[in-house]
From TrEMBL:
<feature type="domain" description="RNase H type-2">
    <location>
        <begin position="10"/>
        <end position="200"/>
    </location>
</feature>
<dbReference type="InterPro" id="IPR012337">
    <property type="entry name" value="RNaseH-like_sf"/>
</dbReference>
<dbReference type="InterPro" id="IPR022898">
    <property type="entry name" value="RNase_HII"/>
</dbReference>
<protein>
    <recommendedName>
        <fullName>Ribonuclease HII</fullName>
        <ecNumber>3.1.26.4</ecNumber>
    </recommendedName>
</protein>
<feature type="binding site">
    <location>
        <position position="108"/>
    </location>
    <ligand>
        <name>a divalent metal cation</name>
    </ligand>
</feature>
<feature type="binding site">
    <location>
        <position position="16"/>
    </location>
    <ligand>
        <name>a divalent metal cation</name>
    </ligand>
</feature>
<comment type="function">
    <text>Endonuclease that specifically degrades the RNA of RNA-DNA hybrids.</text>
</comment>
<keyword id="KW-0540">Nuclease</keyword>
<dbReference type="GO" id="GO:0006298">
    <property type="term" value="P:mismatch repair"/>
</dbReference>
<keyword id="KW-0255">Endonuclease</keyword>
<dbReference type="GO" id="GO:0032299">
    <property type="term" value="C:ribonuclease H2 complex"/>
</dbReference>
<feature type="binding site">
    <location>
        <position position="17"/>
    </location>
    <ligand>
        <name>a divalent metal cation</name>
    </ligand>
</feature>
<keyword id="KW-0464">Manganese</keyword>
<dbReference type="InterPro" id="IPR001352">
    <property type="entry name" value="RNase_HII/HIII"/>
</dbReference>
<comment type="similarity">
    <text>Belongs to the RNase HII family.</text>
</comment>
<keyword id="KW-0378">Hydrolase</keyword>
<dbReference type="GO" id="GO:0043137">
    <property type="term" value="P:DNA replication, removal of RNA primer"/>
</dbReference>
């Protein structure tokens, strides 16, 4: 059973991100404030839900929320500031777009940077403990999946519709065969032998 809130304050926002470990596509975050009377027995950490159940929950969460927002941070920014900072930045930007402004923030994970002096707490595996973080995880995942489905049409050979940019064997084989795209994160180790190749070329 997920807990309603951490702080006992009425405008507590939960935030989470999706796509941190991907080789391609954005890192996507969502932030949400749920009403105090919100209940849903199906809601859980998005990683523990089927795609069907995530898609089922998305409109329910959106209709129930006091407010929510979603932010995509593009691969070029991920490469520029690194994935940890990009994940935090995506969550910060999502929180900044919330109206009303939250008076407390709970964050999935163990790292965060303050937003406008709003107090916050980082909660390890928060997406399987608190309703608002779980709801944010579902929104982040479903919006990112939609984005990957869209760019799949542009580059179908990578099968992002299926792998969503994660480092599957098929995705890596496609990178080996077709090279990279503007959606790939060039600072990531895209191929297992990449470091060996770079060393060989440098000699």
């Amino acid at each position: 059973m997920l807990l309603k809130c951490y702080s006992n304050l009425t405008l507590e926002a939960g935030t989470d991100e999706a796509g941190r470990g991907c080789l391609a596509g954005p890192v996507t975050a969502a932030a949400i404030i749920l009403p105090e009377d919100f209940k849903n027995d199906l809601l859980n950490d998005s990683k523990l839900l089927s795609e069907k159940n995530r898609d089922l929950l998305k409109p329910i969460i959106e209709a129930s929320a006091l407010c929510y927002s979603v932010t995509h941070i593009e691969p070029s920014i991920v490469d520029e500031i690194n994935i940890l900072n990009a994940s935090i930045h995506a969550m910060q930007e999502s929180i900044k777009k919330l109206q009303p402004i939250p008076n407390y923030i709970i964050v999935d994970g163990n790292r965060f940077k303050p937003v406008d002096n709003i107090p916050h707490s980082c909660i390890i595996k928060g997406d399987s403990k608190y309703l608002s973080i779980a709801a944010a995880s579902v929104l982040a995942k479903t919006y990112r999946d939609e984005y990957m489905n869209m760019i799949h049409e542009e580059f179908p050979m990578y099968n992002w519709k299926q792998n969503k940019g994660y480092p599957t064997k098929e995705h890596r084989e496609a990178i080996r065969k077709y090279g990279t795209t503007k959606y790939h994160r060039m600072s990531f180790r895209l191929l297992p032998e990449q470091l060996t190749l770079e060393l060989t070329e440098a000699i």
